[in-house]
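Protocol step 4 of 6: structure prediction from sequence.
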Amino acid sequence: MDEAESLNRAIYEEVIIYPYHKSWPLLFAEEYDRLLLLFPGSFLAIEHIGSTALPGLSAKPVIDILAGVDTMARADALMEPLCQAKYTTSMEFNASLVGRRWLMRWAEGRRTHHLHLVVHGSQEWQQRLAFRDRLRNNEEIARRYEQNKRVWAAKAKLDREAYTAAKSDFIKEVLRSAT
């Protein structure tokens, strides 16, 4: 399989929820170290977010990484160098985003990592960490999220954007209830 075919498969892969795997924190740690080595001084903080950051929770096996930068101009300046460092992105998709940039890594036709570039300390930064921490600290909410994700994945098996949209109301509800 060539690179273009592998990337295409990663973009259109099925939404499948897998049981928790103990390698997920290690995969984050490896990528954390790689990013710091390749881009020293570029990130104010790097955090493991998403379901793979929640011990015991089933998830899509994609490591979500939140990387804090000082400005969106810095995030934009990092896009090309990150693409040269085994990430890829959709400039069209990123043009639709406010307050963040998104990239992914993939291997053998499947996504392995999502990288979210966000201004450190911004509302976007705080909300993503607050959601992760709320689920880490409340097993009942985490289990409800996991059950819902299975339903959403079954309904949107071939539509990652619909799956992501389905999660948004739950995330907003959890963040509202935390305040």
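Step 5 (inspection) to follow. The longest helix spans residues 160-178.
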